[in-house]
Structure formats: C-alpha cells, structure tokens
Design brief:
The complex is a heterodimer of chains A (122) and B (106). Chain A has 122 residues and is mostly beta strands. Chain A is built from no helices and 11 strands. In chain A, strands 2, 4, 5, 6, 9, 10 and 11 form a 7-stranded mixed sheet that branches. In chain A, strands 1-3-8-7 form a 4-stranded antiparallel sheet, with no helix packed on it. Chain B is globular and about 35 Å long. Chain B is built from no helices and 11 strands. The termini of chain B are far apart. In chain B, the strands form 2 sheets. In chain B, strands 2, 4, 5, 6, 9, 10 and 11 form a 7-stranded mixed sheet that branches. The chains are: A mainly beta (122), B mainly beta (106).
Chain lengths: 122, 106
C-alpha cells in the first residue's frame, strides 16, 4: 500500500533553516510527482511546490521562491523540503502529498504524509 | 493567485441531513477543482476530483458539481464520521489554491 512517512517535529530559531524528509513506499517512486503543502495552526492549506522525482525538476510557489528547495534521493525513495530564512509565520505543519496521475504535473493529491510540525521561535 | 471562497465557514447539522458547501473561484477554472476532507490532527483526504468525480474508495454519500466559477459539494445524508473540515482546491492556474475551509459539526 502507498505510504508517505515524514520526519519528526522540528524547532528552529528565526533565520535558521529546516529540512524535512518524506519517504515513499508501495509504488514506483519516480512515476508520481510529489508536492508540499503547509498548514499554519488553525489555518487553511497552502501549496509550496512540487518535484518530479524522476528528473528532479521543480516548480515553486512565487511566495516561497528563493527560500524553498525540493530535492530527492531516488535510491532511498525520499523527497526533501528545505525552507530557509525561517520566521515565526513559518510555524506550521508541513505535508508531502503525492500527485495522483503519474508522469505529469498533476495537482490532485491522493496520498499524504502524516505531517511534520515546524515551530519557529526565539 | 486565484481566490477560492468557501461558504459557509462552519455549519451544524443533524445526522441524516443533506449538507451543501459552496466554493466560488475568483475567475473561471473550468472543472479543475478538487474537494478534500480533513479530520482533526490528520492529513487531508481527497474526496472529489475534477469537480464531480468520486475518488476511489470514497463513500457515494459525497458528490460534487459545478464548473466555471461556482461549485458545490454535497453530503447526501450526514453521518457522525463526516465530522471534519472540507476544503476545495483549484488547479487550473498556478499556484494551486485552497478555499478557507468549511467545518462541519453535528
């Protein structure tokens, strides 16, 4: 069965960086693009970006351009999201989410990781 | 970015009631709209894709309709396990954007 397992909660100071992992199993890792979506406490959902695990190409929301980097490790079926220049407003749960349709820039998210809470506080 | 406006932001209904949630896009998005359910402390779950297609494994109590700028999500007969927050999401124009959510209570 498809599973996305994310790394554990993180606490960072303002200005620092954080890198979260999302390990995929139960399907062909390189066939489905992987998205990242975040949710601030008590707030809605916000799309951050997407990576093609096959070639490594990425697309980011303009809001996060220059601060977010998505990478992948094909040998470990893992996608990484690094966010730099953290500020208090970045406190949120960060989710990886698989694109439903394979081999294209699909924006229907059919499987999600369990979420990783990132707390930014001095 | 396209703005997605959901209404109501919350509602209370009884078991067995028909529940309807609306989602309005700030511009035409054709049928590029998905609906998700999120229970407290959990990740969202895809229910409806492309405005009206029921995701595999999802109960047929859920349905979606609409095109252009106006969309509707319906629970035909509310059950206790449907207590959650529901989000619409457009993906016609990047970045994909979500509505503010509708919290459904009994």
């Amino acid at each position: 069965q498809v599973q996305l397992v994310q790394s554990g909660a993180e606490v960072r100071k303002p200005g620092a960086s954080v890198k979260i992992s999302c390990r995929a199993s139960g399907y062909s890792f390189t066939s489905h693009y992987m998205h990242w979506v975040r949710q601030a406490p008590g707030q809605g959902l916000e799309w951050m970006g997407v990576i093609n695990p096959s070639g490594g190409s990425t697309s980011y929301a303009q809001k996060f351009q220059g601060r977010v980097t998505l990478t992948r490790g094909t040998s470990t079926s893992t996608v990484y999201m690094e966010l730099s220049g953290l500020r208090s407003e970045d406190t949120a749960v960060y989710y990886c989410a698989r694109a439903q349709a394979p081999y294209n820039w699909n924006y229907q998210f059919d499987f999600w990781g369990q979420g990783t809470l990132v707390t930014v506080s001095s | 970015d396209i703005q997605m406006t959901q209404s109501p932001s919350s509602l209370s209904a009884s078991v067995g009631d028909r529940v309807t949630i609306t989602c309005q896009a700030s511009q035409d998005i054709s049928e590029y709209l998905n609906w998700y359910q999120q229970k407290p402390g959990k990740a969202p779950n895809l229910l409806i894709y492309d405005a009206s297609n029921l995701q595999s494994g999802v109960t047929s109590r859920f349905s979606g309709s609409g095109s252009g700028t106006d969309f509707t999500f319906t629970i035909s007969s509310l059950q206790p396990e449907d207590i959650a927050t529901y989000y619409c999401q457009q993906y016609d124009h990047l970045p994909p954007t979500f509505g503010g959510g509708t919290k459904v209570e009994i």
